[in-house]
Amino acid sequence: MHLLADLRTAVRRLAKSPGFALAAVLTLALGIGANTTLFSIVDAVVLRPLPFKRPSELMAIQSRRAQGGDSVSAPDFLDWRRQSRAFREMGAATSQAVVLSGRGEPERLPGERVSPGLFPLLGARPALGRTFTAQEDRPGSGVAILSHGLWKRRFGGDPGILGRSLRLDGQPAVVIGVMPAGFTTLEEDSEIWIPMAFTEDELASRGSHFLAVVGRLAPGATSARAEAEMLAITARLAKEHPREDGGYSAEIRPLHDVVTGGVRPALLMLLGAVSFVLLIACANVANLLLARAATRQRELAVRAALGASRRRLMGEMLADGLPLALAGGLGGVLLALWGTDLAVAAIPAGLPRAGEIRVDGMALAFTLALSLLTGLAISLVPAFQTGRGRLHEALKDGGRSASGGKGRHATRSLLVVLELTLAAALLIGAGLMLKSFARLMQVDPGFRPAGLVAGRVGLPEARYPKTSQQVAFLDSVLARLRATPAVRDAAAVSPLPLGSSRHSLSFVLLGRPAESPEAKLSANWRTVSPGYFRTMGIPLAAGRDLGDHDRDGAPPVLLVNQTLARRHFPRENPLGKRVRIGYNDLECEIVGVVGDVRHAGLDAEAGPEMYTAFAQAPWPSVDLVLRMSAGAPAANAAAALRAAVRQVDPEQAVARIETLDELLAGSASKTRFVFALLALFAGLALLLAAVGLYGVMSWSVGERTHEIGIRMALGARRGEVLGMVVRQGAGLILTGVGAGLLLAWALARLIARLLFTVSPTDPVTFAAVPLLLAAVAFAATWLPAQRATRVDPLLALKAE
């Protein structure tokens, strides 16, 4: 009963001070809204279970070598599935774009090849129709499953889509199912699924790693038992197939960790940073409430003298913060609804589960709990001060001095020091991220992106069953592109640098002992057309480039990058050495060494890379790369690409047309997104800390008006009064910044893995950021200090 009465009284009191209430509510709304927005992102991406049946049982299974994790070859996947008992079932998928034609313009759709057991393993049920059967897992089965989005977009949500025949890569395929809205497998942008249907070449090559494998634990099995079993299986396979599987083992990880692991540290760091903003906001509002409580000291003393217990008065003070916090929570939800929409629009491509981000019931429950905790936090300080204060002394005093007290001044100063400490730590974190991002943008990617435009086309075996047909298509398209006036050069590569695709092949250095650790290795692999390195601006370091004579029937050749050459031929010339690669056990001669390219991203060091001639090792999809003449717009490149491909094959489509500058910027988009949010939170922290310091210094000047008036009446100069106030503020600033440096030093190691070539204790950042904070804080102190020098001694004495 007392609580409800206290709340009603608190609301009435706030209604009489609308300016105070508005300032407090807006301050809390900023802190709570920022926390709700980021919690919505973290909950959707990191905390929420995957949208599959019993997701805790799902494990990602990778091949593993000393160099790190790897995808899985088709023969290894089939052996794993057959021999494992710890997994109830295993499924596999690999990205596979297809061209949908025969109805409107041909369109290249992102898709996947999936094993028939993958959908049941995930517990996925189609919205319409059915999933694949084991009998349909064969080349030429001609069936497909559509995503809900593709069904709506391309077919208008026609319920009669089941049984309709489409043309995929020029071949007929019958639609057997439509998946529910929002469903994804391992590739979030997939719009169509087709059966895995391993080819003969895939079944024969253990060295070609291209599958993502998922397993569901059997009843009673644990991940530790499953990993022990898989290690035993891979050890057996290494003995049975030493040339391809030698040196490989297996790694088991929860599927949830694999999906979210790349972004979890950054998002959790941001969640910690935004909590600092809320703590600063709470300290600000607690200071406001403390100042408000000081003006009520005589009222509280009278009530205490009339019999009100100290506990009763403290309860009333605690109730003062709850209406402010709940109103701030409501304002925070409104800000979060807007902020979440902005964040989703700004989220970089590739962030997992971004489509699930929204302010939902979980976010609202989080906001309510946060608001209640905030209400308690902002009320504790004034309640504690009321409880420990000597209320009877307030009855003896008469003016503004009754609102003071050393304890109250110390508490308010401590709150400001806390704000400055947290702001300093946040600003240093943002400074480290800014320096890291600047360093990242200065990295040489290994090629010249200016003027480059790329687009992807497919060369499926069903439409181009012979290597000669694939090569003829590519030669014809490249010839037409090179004849285009605005195109300086053109070439092909699979896969494109900085793209999402990775091709990893095992290889053997021939002529070395079979038991040597260097005899069985793996590297990223790309197949390219002649002229690729010239078009991209990748330097040739030694040997020769690929030529038109490097075709099927000619001796297979290989180019390697400088990292592979240094790592595996440290004291010898790699030119002329022979290598057997995991692409159909092709034996190649190294004829050239090219410069390193950061294929995996600007923040990833170049690893071992090898390049083969497309005519000797074709791949079912390629990226066409154009170097445009100076001043030629990218739109001309897109038109040229589409026209050249359509002239050679009217049923082909070009997808993902983008400039290499855009691709380069996109590779750093996650870092840019994290930095932007951290900078925003640091800016809010700086603003709130400056406002808090200004408020304390203004209140201090107001309380000391009588003292300042006496000093000036006795002859104190304005400079002396100014120095007195500034020294008080300087003490708070130096203490807060100093504590912030210590806190930042302690926390910086937590973000070390997010930094690029920047030490977590970078001395320049640790020196520059405190200077910036100190400058802003001194500005917040200077304004009240200037006001103090304008006090009229006579008016100040009369007021007392």
Structure overview:
The chain has 800 residues and is α+β, with helices and mostly antiparallel strands. Helix content is 51%, strand content 17%. Strands 1, 2, 3, 4, 5, 6, 7, 8, 9, 10, 11, 13 and 14 form a 13-stranded mixed beta sheet that branches. The model is unreliable at 398-404 (pLDDT under 50). It is built from 25 helices and 25 strands. The protein is elongated.
Which key phrases capture this entry?
800 residues; alpha+beta; 13-stranded mixed sheet; 6-stranded mixed barrel; 51% helix
Secondary structure elements and their pairing?
Layout: H1 2-15, H2 18-47, E1 58-65, E2 68-70, H3 74-83, E3 87-95, E4 98-101, E5 107-109, E6 111-114, H4 118-122, E7 128-129, E8 143-146, H5 148-155, E9 165-168, E10 171-178, E11 192-195, H6 200-204, E12 208-209, E13 212-217, H7 223-240, H8 242-245, E14 249-254, H9 255-260, H10 264-295, H11 297-305, H12 310-346, H13 361-388, H14 391-394, H15 406-441, E15 452-458, H16 467-482, E16 487-494, E17 504-509, E18 520-528, H17 532-536, E19 540-543, E20 557-561, H18 562-568, E21 578-581, E22 586-594, E23 609-613, E24 621-628, H19 634-648, E25 655-659, H20 660-667, H21 669-703, H22 705-713, H23 718-747, H24 763-789, H25 793-799
Parallel strand pairs: 6-11, 8-10, 18-23, 20-22
Antiparallel strand pairs: 1-2, 1-13, 1-14, 3-6, 3-13, 4-5, 4-9, 7-10, 8-11, 9-10, 12-17, 15-24, 15-25, 16-18, 16-24, 17-18, 17-21, 19-22, 20-23, 21-22
Helix pairs in contact: 1-12, 2-10, 2-12, 2-13, 3-7, 10-13, 10-15, 10-21, 12-13, 15-21, 15-23, 15-24, 16-19, 21-24, 22-25, 23-24
